[in-house]
Amino acid sequence: MLCKSVTRFSYYITKNVRRDFHITINPFCKIIKESDNSESINIGNAIKPPRILITGGLGQLGTECAKLLRRNYGNENVILSDIIKPSEENLQNGPFIFADILDFKGLQKIVVDYRIDWLIHFSALLSAVGEQNVPLAVRVNIEGMHNVIELAKQYKLRIFIPSTIGAFGPDSPRNPTPNVTVQRPRTIYGVSKVHAELLGEYYHHRFGLDFRCLRFPGVISSDPPGGGTTDYAVAVFHEGLLNKRYECYLEPHTRLPMIYIEDCLSALFQFLNTPEKLLRRRVYNVTAMSFTPEELFNELFKYIPDLKITYKPDKRQHIAESWPQVFDDSEARRDWGWQHKYDLQRLVELMVQDVNTNFLSKHRLKEVNSYV
Ligand SMILES: NC(=O)c1ccc[n+]([C@@H]2O[C@H](COP(=O)([O-])OP(=O)(O)OC[C@H]3O[C@@H](n4cnc5c(N)ncnc54)[C@H](O)[C@@H]3O)[C@@H](O)[C@H]2O)c1
């Protein structure tokens, strides 16, 4: 029997606070390590770690993802990029460069100069922000994606592009939502993600591109989210701990699939390292749990008994009502051994700890207030 091996990695969220993440490499990954070496690149007889470019790397997922990859492949091998200005902390652990995904020549230069092997494409306008500026969402989410996929084809890169529960719509089965089913989303965000899924699959079949895509549910971390429909599940921790009250823009019974950041990155890392021969698909659903605002707040009351919740649904309610309630990720579990680690109770416990420790200090108050 193959026994579980655990890769432990820790990182610094702030200068003073150390947190540990534990990424479990399950038996599937052991097979990967023994038979494939797919996490490394073979150059003659020497094996070297991949050089990875992350686009849109200063958003909710990018900085944590860079920390994970740097611990596994070395600081210098993971190049974080974005069009916004990095903080001092962003510059501490490895290279950061400016990269606009709408500038194809600029991207070519980066791939050549840094000898990139893998591309993790995080740049996007999320669901709520996309609806506020459709032309920009078309440019960033569709034209930008055309650039990176063409780049990956030209330079034979492995490319990871996340998709989302938002790639489904009102005609999709919502409980559960299987891996392959009717999609037809009603947001520009969802439309652009279906486009990315299909174009990636097409490039794989037509040109042999190593395209990989996971459909993530709402990702919960203590870092500020980027303007999606599931953001309430992050914002309530900041406002709740800070002000003891929160006005929720979704109705209390709106059920959506969710995942804690550590599980999300664990899925990404494991999927990136899965040998091609195990992948029956290029696009997989992954999830960890499903809950409603009311269920989340009930759990949070255990930590903040005097938390006052009010509800004022806005346009995001309509978006949420067209999305999956329960995500069926059985194909990811079957094909490459995906397993989540965190449930609702553990998620709330960790989020209360994270937000208390890392955000409720004086110098972060302004930052928190700017997005909740
Ligand atoms: N956060 C979630 O809950 C979630 C869930 C499912 C899927 N995803 C996907 O994961 C990816 C990352 O999500 P996130 O939450 O970190 O997003 P985010 O909004 O926090 O970050 C996106 C980043 O893209 C950058 N960007 C915008 N225009 C750009 C351009 N022209 N060139 C380069 N960069 C540009 C922004 O500056 C921003 O830092 C996205 O593709 C998103 O669709 C996220």
Automatic annotation (TrEMBL):
EC assignment: 1.1.1.103
EC main group: oxidoreductase
Biological classification of the source: Eukaryota, Metazoa, Ecdysozoa, Arthropoda, Hexapoda
Bilayer-spanning residue ranges: none
Pathway: Amino-acid degradation; L-threonine degradation via oxydo-reductase pathway; glycine from L-threonine: step 1/2
Top-level taxonomic group: Eukaryota
Domain annotation NAD-dependent epimerase/dehydratase: ranges: 52-286
Catalysed conversion reaction: L-threonine + NAD(+) = (2S)-2-amino-3-oxobutanoate + NADH + H(+)
Stated role: Catalyzes the NAD(+)-dependent oxidation of L-threonine to 2-amino-3-ketobutyrate, mediating L-threonine catabolism.
Protein family according to the UniProt entry: Belongs to the NAD(P)-dependent epimerase/dehydratase family.
CDD domains: TDH_SDR_e
Pfam families given in the database record: Epimerase
GO biological process, one term: L-threonine catabolic process
PANTHER family from the UniProt entry: L-THREONINE 3-DEHYDROGENASE, L-THREONINE 3-DEHYDROGENASE, MITOCHONDRIAL
GO molecular-function term, one example from the UniProt record: L-threonine 3-dehydrogenase activity
Name of this chain's protein: L-threonine 3-dehydrogenase, mitochondrial
